[in-house]
Amino acid sequence: MKKLINDPADVVSEALLGIAAAHPDLGVDHQNKIVYRADAPVRGKVGLISGGGSGHEPLHGGFVGPGMLDAACAGEVFTSPVPDQVVAATRLADGGAGVLHIVKNYTGDVMNFEMAAELVTADTGVEVASVVVDDDVAVQDSLYTAGRRGVGTTVLLEKITGAAADEGRDLAAVADVARRVNAAGRSMGMALTSCTVPAAGQPTFDLPEGEMEIGIGIHGEPGRRRVPLAPAREVAEMLVEPVLSDLDFTGGDGALVFLNGMGGTPMLELYLMYNEVAKILQKAGVTVVRSLVGPYITSLEMAGCSVTVLKLDDELLRLWDAPVSTPGLRWGR
Amino acid sequence: MKKLINDPADVVSEALLGIAAAHPDLGVDHQNKIVYRADAPVRGKVGLISGGGSGHEPLHGGFVGPGMLDAACAGEVFTSPVPDQVVAATRLADGGAGVLHIVKNYTGDVMNFEMAAELVTADTGVEVASVVVDDDVAVQDSLYTAGRRGVGTTVLLEKITGAAADEGRDLAAVADVARRVNAAGRSMGMALTSCTVPAAGQPTFDLPEGEMEIGIGIHGEPGRRRVPLAPAREVAEMLVEPVLSDLDFTGGDGALVFLNGMGGTPMLELYLMYNEVAKILQKAGVTVVRSLVGPYITSLEMAGCSVTVLKLDDELLRLWDAPVSTPGLRWGR
Amino acid sequence: MSAVPTEGAVDVAALRRWIDAFAGDVAEHQEELTRLDSAIGDADHGSNLARGMKAVLAALDSERPATAGALLKRTGMTLVSTVGGASGPLYGTFFLRMGTAAGEVESLDTAALGAALRAGVGGIVARGKSELGDKTMYDALAPAVDAYDAAGDEVGAALRAASDAADRGRDATIPLQARKGRASYLGERSVGHQDPGATSAALLLGAAARTLG
Amino acid sequence: MSAVPTEGAVDVAALRRWIDAFAGDVAEHQEELTRLDSAIGDADHGSNLARGMKAVLAALDSERPATAGALLKRTGMTLVSTVGGASGPLYGTFFLRMGTAAGEVESLDTAALGAALRAGVGGIVARGKSELGDKTMYDALAPAVDAYDAAGDEVGAALRAASDAADRGRDATIPLQARKGRASYLGERSVGHQDPGATSAALLLGAAARTLG
Ligand SMILES: Nc1ncnc2c1ncn2[C@@H]1O[C@H](COP(=O)(O)OP(=O)(O)O)[C@@H](O)[C@H]1O
Ligand SMILES: Nc1ncnc2c1ncn2[C@@H]1O[C@H](COP(=O)(O)OP(=O)(O)O)[C@@H](O)[C@H]1O
Ligand SMILES: [Mg+2]
Ligand SMILES: [Mg+2]
Ligand SMILES: [Mg+2]
Ligand SMILES: [Mg+2]
Q1: Which keywords fit this entry according to its UniProt record (chains A, B) (predicted)?
Q2: Is the model's pLDDT at D28 over the cut of 60?
Q3: What pTM was estimated for this model as a whole?
Q4: How many structural domains is chain D composed of?
Q5: CATH number of the domain that residue B172 is part of
């Protein structure tokens, strides 16, 4: 294992020290492993929190700031945070208008956030709503799965919902925007390499030269199928086709296209992939009105990418364009 | 070789298609492989151009936009652009106030930019000034080297000099700011892995488990020495010590600290490393007033990082804080 | 309300020995659990449980709960607060419910221990909505409590039966296609791999048979 | 001003055969050149030169220059415009200066060819400020032009002497510590490796000996 770390057990807490040092606009509760807006809670604004295992940076801590999240809980690498963290983050984020929990659909995340919401409601009276992101078309929502995973759409949802909260909407309305984003977003990912969980010390799976995994999530797990390595244009087809067959673009809505890097794939390749994706979407008659290219929801140092397509209406577009100021996404201020 | 590409020969031109598709604010001259501000030239403003081999993204194309570069030339992977490209970029960027060439100190870059400047001056009458960035303390400037390499400081210089040009200064004054930044910045880098040049098809060098390279540049070349893998805190010492012993901080100036990822190292590790670097600087009595953490000047998918320390005075700080709007760095608008 | 110790009953000290033994087994098998989780999950089950059980030992050392209920609930709360992931809430709920069922007593007889175990497993089902054959820890735990109840009055024999059944349940996860948790994302590719949670659950019952019998 | 063809002289067609042969040698040795550049550089010398020589062949095919000067200058300009890196300006300048020295003639005799080669090498020194022993292409080219001049009037013999000297100069780069170009960043670690540019320069002289002699 080759990593820039000290003791594998300290990776998350030491990275949080670095986040605190690098971003004076953010506060870090090192005890509870929470990154929060230094000016939290914002009076009268619905608080937005999220969290999950670490190893997906900049998600979620890098999306804390004006226009996006109020606080984020960092679990151990690829391990959902514990309820205590979520409770503490909820308290930090509550400005009197309630708190929205943005939860990626993984058994662990869902259960830990659920327990936290039970505790918050019982102990503090803070109003909590939850939205579960499940946008990964690699996984069918059926009796045979834990439902679709929450992947790329999470980033877009945190941004757009953050803008809705900034407009002063109430908790139900903010949660509604979040659910609309989730309903309008679909993703599909692939890996060229595995990644190494620091505590495990070796790659999660073995992926020989000449092969790749299609339909991966963001936890370094193997994907739905292993296929021979293919040129970028074919990889793009494998990702975009299932996304588009699951989203109805006949209404003439525009799309936000998000080409995400899994952590170990450089921008040169991501832009090249984005070109392939854009060509396929154009052929399919999808009008791309906004795009995002880069490593925003990652799987440690895994090489690979995912494609997220979000159907935009005028409101979602306006909320996407609204100012945001976080380490990971920043514009308009 | 596992990469998201089609034909290795087309990597750069296809990535430029992706940049054009993803960034409507940027123009791309595909013939000359130039990324430019769609609104270039800006009348009356000194034009800023840079360029170099590809594979360092977001450098340089990702730093084109208001407040930073006017145009950037993309060479083949790790290969300096040719004079024709530089000439074309100079023309695109000239708003009547002359053009500054920002050149990283590599034999190839220097010679190609030099030939371009000769051609521009002979053919067009556009006034050109050049600044050569040479901030890498791994390489001593001596009879036995081609001088120090240009690495991390390039990013900071492009940002700060861009702000100076935005203020309407003339070419000599803008070039002077650039030279001051170069004089005040020092960098040192390391690698955990090699990277693979697409056209070469295999890793540039072999770096076994348990070893790392100290004193690398940004072209996937081996470093100054190979040493056993060490914990992050020791790696930080190996990078910061030579930087600080080359910069005089007795005047009480603040520092901008830039912890750069080489492409394959995830943010989790970069923040952890930043924490180590910040601790060492604090112990050394250096006041960090600004920081930048992330992959901004990369070496394809190489795992590793570099540390750049820039001594700031009030003016450089103000110019760093000025608004910038590029794919790679954006704030204030 | 403190219980009168019964012959052959499981007292607080024995329960503590169980927790100690489970913590030891988890530490010993940490790499194996993570390796199993690498094949069909995200390579953290071993480190998750090891971290949690280390915290449990520390909590029990500092608090020294005096009743079965207090000891089991402290174990559960510590797991909930330190493990995370899927197994944190699940094992946490197991011990919390088991502790609630056990009550503030100094020892448990065979029937009370069986009822407490069954309550704990019920907590896992309530949290995880797992069904038999989903390829989860429940596939080891469900047959274990059934075997315990079927084995009669002698606590040692009952726990050995439970442990054997848990081992068989664990082995029986190998051919299954997962329908819960991360492994379900793999679809048919989950077939042929032993479930990590069922493996740690079998360790839990094995430790019980060694220490409570 | 068109020259009278001399017996044993090198005409435009022969120069074109030289360029063709060099392009072929570069294509054939592309991987080797890149491998050498991997050890002490950035793994692109082979693809750089291969790309450039492919473009040169295309340019010469479409333009069919009628004089030695035009052919060599077109070669140089194409290399400058397509190679990039250090070798682009260096080889580009070599051919540009060689073409200027050759002039608008249809053939070169032994002395004129030697003078043109020397002018080309002078261009490399002017651009790259290289000195003997810096571990660059100059270490193959400098002894080559000296050997050419020392070899007498017969162009074939002169080129064979030059080619042999270039090969020796190339081999002599192995023990050197680089003082120019990327390899210099490696310090002592550059010792023991053959310089990629000296290797391609030896190919250039080898192709000349085969085609112009
Ligand atoms: N819904 C569920 N019900 C019961 N057990 C489950 C459920 N989901 C997952 N598990 C168990 O959890 C184990 C994985 O635990 P762990 O790796 O610690 O958490 P995570 O899956 O969040 O990484 C699985 O092997 C399985 O036995
Ligand atoms: N200053 C110089 N003078 C002469 N030759 C040089 C000089 N610098 C580099 N070279 C030659 O260029 C070769 C490398 O060419 P190439 O790999 O194509 O360019 P780059 O070094 O820019 O990647 C070296 O092997 C060396 O022979
Ligand atoms: Mg996990
Ligand atoms: Mg190069
Ligand atoms: Mg797991
Ligand atoms: Mg090279």
Answers
A1: Kinase, Transferase
A2: yes
A3: 0.96
A4: 1
A5: 3.40.50.10440
